[in-house]
Design a protein that fits this description.
The complex is a heterodimer of chains A (about 240) and B (about 80).
Chain A lengths: L2 E4 L5 H12 L3 E6 L3 H13 L3 E6 L7 H11 L2 E6 L14 H29 L2 E6 L12 H21 L4 E8 L11 H5 L10 H12 L10 E4 L6
Parallel strand pairs in A: 1-2, 1-4, 2-3, 4-5, 5-6, 6-7
Chain B lengths: L7 H14 L20 H15 L5 H6 L3 H12 L1
Helix pairs in contact in B: 1-2, 1-4
Classes of the chains: A alpha/beta (about 240), B mainly alpha (about 80).
Chain lengths: ~240, ~80
């Protein structure tokens, strides 16, 4: 058993990922920024199902030490990192202000880099590791009003590929999962219009995404690295 | 993290051990040996840096590592940082 850190895991995709990893035997750090109750509920659900988890509070933009230390102290080296925490500040590029651009890039991309750099130290020494970055269909494709989000997610995919190439020979894989339209709090109110454009004719669920992450975190995915797995009901096909 | 005084002998020992762990041939690890000749690349050096930090309490940053070319350079740098 080894430790896994899932950022932004108090609800939605992150919570589903935390539960799936715990079901596969990972000892999970359920990170939250402000929703402590949500994180504790995720931890409780994991424990009720027979898994191990702790809630790890902290803003991913504050750096990795506060997130890794409690997890390492409790469970040992973190050998799986899921960079899921993300924010949106939507506006067309002409109207986006600097703060709206910066906070999205800092949270969705820069924080993922800093946490990955920290995680790789232990993974490289252990000769085993899994880094999974939650990207998006937005980035590889356009979505008006989300230039900042698209830039961060596209950047995350590029980051994934290069880091994967750097550490592959240490048995550390680095992959991205690109969710399409997933029915979570972040997408509330947009469902009906979006589904028309999805070949599967339904929104995805957090469990759909979590299943993909669970596979990439597993030993079965040891030869899968540097790739982006689109979980989007065919949107990108 | 170690708080021992770092001697040249100790630094050489730790660095040689770390280089061997990342695949360098023991017999080839001499002060004049270049990392290139030892087939030690930046990923290996990043790992060696971690070992140095853990065992000698000396932190080498990315820019430091980029400048060292030989085993002797690494030893000298560790001693300079430790003093």
């Amino acid at each position: 058993m080894s430790a896994a850190l899932v950022t932004g895991a108090s609800k939605g995709i992150g919570a589903a990922v935390a539960k799936e990893l715990a079901a596969d035997g990972w000892q999970v750090g359920v990170n939250y920024n402000s929703d402590a109750a949500g994180a504790e509920a995720t931890v409780a659900a994991i424990k009720e199902a027979g898994g191990e988890a702790i809630a790890v509070g902290g803003d991913v933009t504050d750096g990795p030490d506060g997130l890794f230390a409690p997890l390492e102290e409790r469970f040992g080296p973190v050998l799986c990192l899921v960079n899921n925490a993300g924010v949106t500040r939507d506006n067309i590029a002409l109207s986006l202000d600097d703060e709206e651009w910066d906070v999205v890039l800092q949270t969705n991309l820069t924080a993922a880099f800093k946490l990955t750099r920290r995680a790789l130290k232990g993974m490289v020494r252990a000769r085993h590791g899994r880094v999974i970055n939650i990207a998006s269909v937005v980035g590889p494709r356009a979505n008006a009003g989300q230039a900042n989000y698209a830039a961060a997610k596209a950047g995350l995919i590029g980051f994934t590929k290069t880091v994967a190439a750097e550490v592959a020979r240490r048995n550390v894989t680095v992959n991205a999962v690109a969710p399409g339209f997933i029915d979570t709090g972040m997408t509330e109110g947009l469902l009906e219009t979006a589904v028309e454009h999805i070949p599967a004719r339904r929104a995805g669920t957090p469990q759909d995404v979590a299943a993909a992450v669970r596979f990439l975190a597993s030993d079965a995915a040891g030869y899968v690295t540097g790739t982006t797995l689109f979980v989007d009901g065919g949107m990108s096909a | 993290m170690s708080t021992e005084t770092v001697t040249r002998e100790r630094a050489e020992e730790v660095i040689a051990e770390a280089l061997a762990d990342v695949g360098a041939e023991r017999a080839d690890i001499t002060p004049d040996a270049t990392f290139e000749a030892l087939d030690v690349d930046s990923l290996d050096l990043a790992e060696v840096s971690q070992v140095i930090e853990e065992q000698l309490g000396v932190r080498l940053g990315g820019k430091d590592v980029a400048q060292i070319k030989t085993v002797g350079d690494a030893v000298d740098l560790v001693l300079a940082r430790a003093s």
